[in-house]
UniProtKB/TrEMBL annotation, chain A:
Keywords: Oxidoreductase, Pyruvate, Thiamine pyrophosphate. Residues 4-179 form the Transketolase-like pyrimidine-binding domain. This is Pyruvate dehydrogenase E1 component beta subunit. Its cofactor is thiamine diphosphate. SMART domains: Transket_pyr. It comes from the Bacteria.
UniProtKB/TrEMBL annotation, chain B:
One of its GO terms (molecular function) is pyruvate dehydrogenase (acetyl-transferring) activity. Its cofactor is thiamine diphosphate. Residues 15-314 form the Dehydrogenase E1 component domain. One of its GO terms (biological process) is pyruvate decarboxylation to acetyl-CoA. The lineage of its organism: Bacteria, Pseudomonadati, Pseudomonadota, Alphaproteobacteria, Rhodobacterales. Keywords: Oxidoreductase, Pyruvate, Thiamine pyrophosphate. It holds the Pfam family E1_dh. The pyruvate dehydrogenase complex catalyzes the overall conversion of pyruvate to acetyl-CoA and CO(2). It contains multiple copies of three enzymatic components: pyruvate dehydrogenase (E1), dihydrolipoamide acetyltransferase (E2) and lipoamide dehydrogenase (E3). This is Pyruvate dehydrogenase E1 component alpha subunit. The keyword Zinc does not apply. The keyword GTP-binding does not apply. It catalyses: N(6)-[(R)-lipoyl]-L-lysyl-[protein] + pyruvate + H(+) = N(6)-[(R)-S(8)-acetyldihydrolipoyl]-L-lysyl-[protein] + CO2. It comes from Marinovum algicola.
Amino acid sequence: MRQITLSQAVNEALAEEMRRDERVFIIGEDVAEAGTPFKVLSGLVEEFGTARVVDTPIAEPGFMGLAVGAAMTGTRPVVDLMFGDFIYLIMDQLCNQAAKTHYMSGGKLNVPLVLRTNLGATRRSAAQHSQSLHALVAHIPGLKVAMPSSAYEAKGLMKTAIRDDNPVVIFEDKLMYNDKAPVPEEEFLIPFGAANIKREGRDITLIGTSSMVQVCEAAADLLAQEGISAEVIDPRTIVPLDEATLLASARKTSRVIVVDEGHQSYGVTGEIASRINEQAFYHLDAPVLRMGAMDVPVPFSPALEDITVPTPEGVAAQARKLMAGEMIHAAE
Amino acid sequence: MTKKTNTEDYLRMYRQMVRIRTFEDNANKLYLSAKMPGLTHMYSGEEAVAVGICEALKVTDKITSTHRGHGHCVAKGAAFREMFCELLGKEEGYCRGKGGSMHIADQSNGNLGANAIVGGSMGIATGAAFTARLLGKEDVTVCFFGDGATAQGLMYEVMNMAALWHLPVIYACENNGYSEYTRTEEIAAGSICARAEAFGIEAHQVDGQDVLAVNALTRTLVERARKGEGPFFLELMTYRYHGHHVGDINREYYRSKDEEKDWKDNRDPIIRFRSWLVEEGIAGEDEIEAMNEEIKADATAAVEYALAARYPDVSEVDMHVYTDVTHALARSPA
């Protein structure tokens, strides 16, 4: 199968959906001729014109609010938020308006909108351009949240998101734009709420989101050398969450580590760990462990930044402790 | 326009203004007698704004509304029964009781909804205008907001984009003199119209108690907006008779009773328009009184209906969270 970058995969998904449905348009800062700072959208304005690939002023709440109104009245906007960190700027329009409109109107109004943005540290961009803020929006009922872990997921999830009648937020890892993965030439979609078992295993389950799937796979490689068989699962969407697949794996292996690049406290790792504890407690041989990003603003210095996010070595080390039974009395 | 059509238009404008006033009188009574959950914000006194503007719109044109939104909702064509049901949280309300007074929406008449975030709908209105342009529709959108909302940054972000792209949107600032419990001159520096003009947007200040003036100006601007000459900005000078909300009873610390009395006695939009209808021979006193009584009876019947109506079944609590999931909290089989 051909290999393309995550960036090309997103670009293809958007182009295919824009050809299929003339109501789809892209709006955001420097999305047209510039094709975004990451060049993900290069070439789209040449095909679809400036009416459908719309450059805006630097006014995130403004274009987000505009997109909500456009979605409510019959179009399907894809909002480009240049950095996930800017999500704080659009919180009212995303969480008070887009997320609640369908509910508050008793089901009469829809907001079929995609917000594509990014996450991920270790790009040396410091605290305001490196955050992974998906937990903030996953907390809000009415929003769906997709977290592609490779070019394949990036394409399939984007196409599903555009066809969804609800507001969907997609977080791409900005360090993965140039990573290649096998992506079929023919059209495909990836349904929401369907986790992917990336690797089957027997002894321990590693649940990872976005680029943490790669971290979990690398950790599984390390563990395999020691005879530990790790199962790696990518939920692909955290809202909706495929609990059934996660629980089945937890019951099978009896040990689970949840790895995510958001801050660990009050985050995605805690939520998934709780659901497993609540529903698979008697199948567990050890506490479910959380591994998120350190609860500090992302530092600039490489010496500091690199230690704030989970690594394959770190995940493997925690897995060994779980296997050895060392964590059972961790609370003492 | 023939004289006959004009007469119908005038009588309809009068009727709609009285319907708003009557609706609000009943809503206030429901609050004061503790029959309504929560609280609400009265539109009384501002009727000529909503009616003058909405009578210049087609059903397919869109509006966005505010926390003080009953007037916009009625003026855009909503029915009493579904509105009172919504205010009381009943199943037959416009939003099945999920929105209430501050979120009432009536998409069948182009009302995209009231908004409880001050200034929160400015992006939505601008986006509705964007849709019209992208899909080649003739729709014009009117964004209602108060003088208080002119302090929100979102307004300037979206006016900038609307002006750059000539979107068919009319920003209608209802300047009722007060931003909650604070006089507008204490929160708004300079001229409100000049802020729009700074973006190259044509702005008009108009007497918001004169329904004919509001309507005539809006008709012109709506037609121009349809032709791509928008956006436009209106500052409608008006007054709210009640407090910020129904519970804001003792308000002399921010405005005097004399001031309220002056507006009610001398500038009331309904009294003024009624006198004009009679003077011009468009309607007789008897005819007007009969209309008033008919509207009162309609409202009474709608209130009684709503009070007796059913609440939504508790199973609806997790419905309408997502379009494609009937019950959002139903867990997948474990």
